[in-house]
Design goal:
- The structure is a single chain.
- By secondary structure, the chain is mostly helical.
- Helix content is 80%, strand content 0%.
- It has helices at residues 2-19, 25-28, 31-41, 46-51, 53-79, 85-108, 113-117, 120-135, 139-161, 169-179, 183-203, 212-231, 239-253, 255-275.
- Helix 9 runs antiparallel to helix 11.
- The longest helix has 27 residues, at 53-79.
- The relative contact order is 0.12.
């Protein structure tokens, strides 16, 4: 299950990179970060750098190349075994890429720390897969790692839902589109869900079977938020365009349901062992 989740994460991000919808320019067009380097190492001024078509092509090609790389990582997760050293290294490189990607979104969102850790399940899952297959981690270690990733993702999602950070417009759009409610009602629903995210982030750390109902909710909500990407934006008149744009968003977020499901199964298994 973890292998499938990782494959979908890499496939989804690879797909989105090939569509070109990734904020690499938040680094390459950061004047404060790169102006001195550009003007010191080249004959271009900063204005020439940000308007040069060759620079734009380079950034776009880098995005596409990264997309192909993630697709290769997807295949590597399927083939990974205890003896495949290079596949393991490729997956760790992919996880590093996802951490960098989370940083890009973190930077784009005005350095909101919650934005970075909201991706914890996505960049943490490939690392865990590597540790299980190549290092033989025990179920107790796996469960604790899973709970940390789940808690970070859900709590940080909750920070946006309750309005601690500005509520993303797509959050409201999805709620309105799915439930056909007013904007004020959608905001109330998001606040309620955000509070539940905080509750889940704490109570999943209860011992074994006591955590089961809270992990079960995390499974439901993880899959629901993933599927919301494609269902809320679906347009029968532009079906292919809708699927091409939003299906990868769903694929990479299916891990938000799969990872809690893995944690739920392990918790029930360990609870059964302790009762026996």
């Amino acid at each position: 299950m973890l292998r499938i989740a990782c494959a979908l994460i890499f496939l989804g991000w690879g797909w989105l990179h090939l569509l070109g919808d990734i904020p690499f320019r938040t680094i390459f067009w950061d004047e404060g970060l790169l102006k001195g380097i550009v003007e010191g190492l080249s004959a271009m001024t900063w204005k020439e750098w940000v308007t040069h078509p060759g620079v734009d092509r380079f950034v776009q090609n880098l995005v596409y190349t990264t997309g192909i790389f993630y697709c290769l990582c997807c295949l590597a997760t399927i083939k990974l075994n205890p003896n495949s050293i290079w596949l393991g290294r490729l997956i760790l490189a992919g996880a590093t890429g996802l951490i960098i990607l989370a940083f890009l979104f973190f930077k784009e969102k005005f350095y909101h720390l919650g934005q970075f850790f909201e991706y914890a399940i996505q960049w943490g899952s490939p690392i865990l897969l590597y540790l299980i297959v190549r290092r033989g981690w025990t179920e107790q270690k796996i469960l604790f790692y899973l709970k940390i990733a789940i808690a970070l993702t859900f709590v940080c999602h909750g920070l946006y839902a309750v309005g601690y950070y500005p509520v993303p417009g797509n959050f409201l759009d999805m709620v309105i589109g799915i439930f056909n409610v007013s904007e004020s009602t959608a905001q109330t629903l998001l606040t309620t869900v955000g509070i539940l995210d905080f509750v889940i982030g704490v109570l999943i750390f209860l011992p074994r079977r006591m955590a089961v109902p809270f992990l079960a909710y995390a499974v439901f909500w993880g899959f629901a938020t993933a599927l919301a990407r494609v269902t809320s934006y679906f347009d029968a008149d532009f079906m292919i365009k809708t699927v091409v744009r939003w299906l990868p968003e769903t694929l990479l977020r299916l891990a938000h349901g799969v990872i809690p499901l893995v944690a739920l199964i392990i918790s029930m298994k360990l609870g059964q062992k302790s009762s026996d």
